[in-house]
Amino acid sequence: FEARLQSRGDRTEDPEESRPAIQQGEVEWMNIGGYLKASQEPGAIPLVCTEFEVPEAFRALYEVPRICAVREIEDPTQFLFLASAGRHAHLHYDGDQRHTLLCQVVGRKRVLLFEPRCSMMLSPMVNFSAICLDRFTEEQKRGFVDLWGGYDVVLEPGDALFFPMLMWHYVEYL
């Protein structure tokens, strides 16, 4: 299966590859093995994997709670996210307005959560915030979470985090 990847890097050439290197903001499709290989090479460009559907072989290993479906007649949607340590997902809420059950399989991630009541204070641009938490210091992040009554959670392998639709979230891959 393949994933849709977006570069957050600025490397402009790749002397080891016959294909041109992915540029900042460009999108490239590759399989999970290709992603893992590319992300572990010295000088690797910082790729962030956007959501893609969970392969059927994985889906057979667990059952997703019905609450994660938008409507009773719909099967819950399942997505897989991959990113290397040091990457992040900007502050946003999920545009499809689904409840989310975030299950951590490997690695660790930090999730900052803010209730929908905070929306106007988070400088929304549709379902993304104009506030770049990735540029905040740790002290500033803690202060921001405290100011808006948010939550700061670190997920370890085997942990799960449920949050309802329209919950703003920022994710750091640790």
Give the helix/strand layout.
Blueprint: E1 2-7, E2 27-31, H1 32-40, E3 47-49, E4 52-53, H2 56-59, E5 79-80, E6 88-92, E7 100-103, E8 109-114, E9 124-125, E10 128-129, H3 138-147, E11 151-155, E12 160-163, E13 168-173
Antiparallel strand pairs: 1-2, 1-3, 4-5, 6-13, 7-12, 8-11, 8-13, 9-10
Mean pLDDT across all residues, rounded?
A: 77
Largest sheet: 4 strands, antiparallel
Helix fraction bin: 10-25%
Shape summary? globular
Low-confidence stretches: 1-22
Taking the alpha carbons of the first and last residues, their distance comes to 25 Å
Strand order in space, largest sheet:
6-13-8-11
**H/E topology pattern:** EEHEEHEEEEEEHEEE
Count of discrete alpha- or pi-helical segments spanning 4 or more residues: 3
Which radius of gyration do the C-alpha atoms yield?
Answer: 17 Å
List how many beta strands DSSP finds: 13
Secondary-structure-derived class:
alpha+beta
Strand content: 25-35%
Structural write-up:
With 174 residues, the chain is of the alpha+beta class. Helix content is 13%, strand content 30%. The protein has helices spanning 32-40, 56-59, 138-147, and strands spanning 2-7, 27-31, 47-49, 52-53, 79-80, 88-92, 100-103, 109-114, 124-125, 128-129, 151-155, 160-163, 168-173. The strands form five sheets. It has a four-stranded antiparallel β-sheet, with helices on one face. It has a three-stranded antiparallel β-sheet with strand order 2-1-3, covered by helices on one side. A two-stranded antiparallel sheet has the order 4-5. A hairpin with a 2-residue loop joins strand 9 (124-125) and strand 10. The longest helix is centred in the C-terminal third of the chain and has 10 residues, at 138-147. The protein starts with a strand and ends with a strand. Mean pLDDT is 77; it is low at 1-22.
